[in-house]
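User: Can you recover a sequence for this backbone? Please restate the input before giving your answer.

Assistant: Of course. Working from this structure:
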């Protein structure tokens, strides 16, 4: 998903820093999960991951990419929903049913068959269900007065979302599968959103991506036996509950833009049924976000937020991703980390990268050209009673 601070492209940088530091897999807290890109990579590398974020869409992605380990066979769905059953047959999947059955007899299911079924069901959500008028068509399409999605795509999003919730209500999908498919709808909607990458504004002419038909592409989950847990909560509150862990990964907002105001559309797609409860404000249809506003976006509050998080965590190692233009300056960030470190030492790794396109020179931000430096700080932390204060 197009997301400010998405670390997908920086994963090799993060991985090589961890290798150089000799940090081996254990229990990690991805405290500002966003798209869950980091939690997902940690899980693949053998970590047990706890992740947290304030936003509902992030919780959905954490459930899909970090927590989910298995996917239904979709037998119940195929039985109950004839068009979906028909889809399996049409794609030649019925013939493989025997294989799945035989493997289940020895406690296995077939990854390939399940992945193909998942892809067929995701495709059905985008193309097999008749587009219908719902909340997004009424509020986030030209018919609703806002050009976020074409009328057709908004009606497809409504239909996909309604179908998914209906299947869940009827007990036809396991929780993991529900979140994998809902994350796929959020990501699909993002691909056809008529924005420059964030939802703070829509563009007044249709962009080429917005004119494409909605696609829903589901990612099969990473299979491990590790029990990973997602939290929709404040990072510090979650850190307090985790006790001793091995790694705290901190990737907070680094400027004054609140994610709640920039991603209200995915937030609405992610939430449960709410049409009667939600009030949309203004030209872009913003929602009340008092509970989701972050102290990390404030120059005044961010340094104390970092201090509180470091004293709440029971992690042995902390890695902090930050940006050279962040609200906490380099000197202050190092001082706060040094204070929490067992030996007073802080290491810093740097990577230059091209600025994310949705970042523009507004709101008094001080941008210096097209390149930004991504900074990664490391400290070995004191844990309960360890080392000098
Ligand atoms: C830079 S983004 C993280 C990006 C993420 N690492 C990724 O790769 O997608 C910062 C995230 O912090 C979340 N956030 C802001 N304040 C928070 C808080 N107090 N506790 C937990 N998450 C918070 C935002 O919602 C946002 O998703």
């Amino acid at each position: 998903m197009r997301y400010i601070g998405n670390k997908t492209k920086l994963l090799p940088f993060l991985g090589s820093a961890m290798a150089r530091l000799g940090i081996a897999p254990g229990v990690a807290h991805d405290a500002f999960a966003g798209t869950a890109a980091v939690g997902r990579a940690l899980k693949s590398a053998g970590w047990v991951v706890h992740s947290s974020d304030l936003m509902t869409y992030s919780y959905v992605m954490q459930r899909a990419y970090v927590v989910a380990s298995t996917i239904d066979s979709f037998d119940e769905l195929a039985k109950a929903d004839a068009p979906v059953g028909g889809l399996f047959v049409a794609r030649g999947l019925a013939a493989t049913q025997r294989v799945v059955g035989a493997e289940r007899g020895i406690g296995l299911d077939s990854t390939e068959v399940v992945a193909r079924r998942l892809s067929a069901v995701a495709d059905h959500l985008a193309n097999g269900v008749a587009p219908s008028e719902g909340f997004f068509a009424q509020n986030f399409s030209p018919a609703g007065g806002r050009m976020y999605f074409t009328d057709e795509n908004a009606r497809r999003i409504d239909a996909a979302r309604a179908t998914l919730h209906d299947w869940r209500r009827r007990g036809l999908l396991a929780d993991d599968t529900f979140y994998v498919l809902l994350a796929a709808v959020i990501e699909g909607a993002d691909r056809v959103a008529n924005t420059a990458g964030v939802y703070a504004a829509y563009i007044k002419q249709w962009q080429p991506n917005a004119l494409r038909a909605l696609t829903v592409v589901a990612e099969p989950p990473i299979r491990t036996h590790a029990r990973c847990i997602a939290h929709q909560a404040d990072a510090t509150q979650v850190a307090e509950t985790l006790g001793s862990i091995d790694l705290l990964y901190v990737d907070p907002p680094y400027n004054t833009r609140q994610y709640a105001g920039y991603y209200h559309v995915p937030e609405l797609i992610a939430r449960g049924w709410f049409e009667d409860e939600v009030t949309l404000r203004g030209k872009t249809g913003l929602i009340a976000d008092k509970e989701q506003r972050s102290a990390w976006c404030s120059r005044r509050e961010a340094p104390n937020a970092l201090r509180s998080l470091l004293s709440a965590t029971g992690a042995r190692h902390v890695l902090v991703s930050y940006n050279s233009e962040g609200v906490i300056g380099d000197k202050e960030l190092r001082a706060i980390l040094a204070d929490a470190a067992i030996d007073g030492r802080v290491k810093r790794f740097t990577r230059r990268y091209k600025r994310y396109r949705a970042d523009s020179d507004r709101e008094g931000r001080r941008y210096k050209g097209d390149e930004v430096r991504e900074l990664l700080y490391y400290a070995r932390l004191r844990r309960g009673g360890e080392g000098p204060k």
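That completes the design. The first strand starts at residue 27 and ends at 30.
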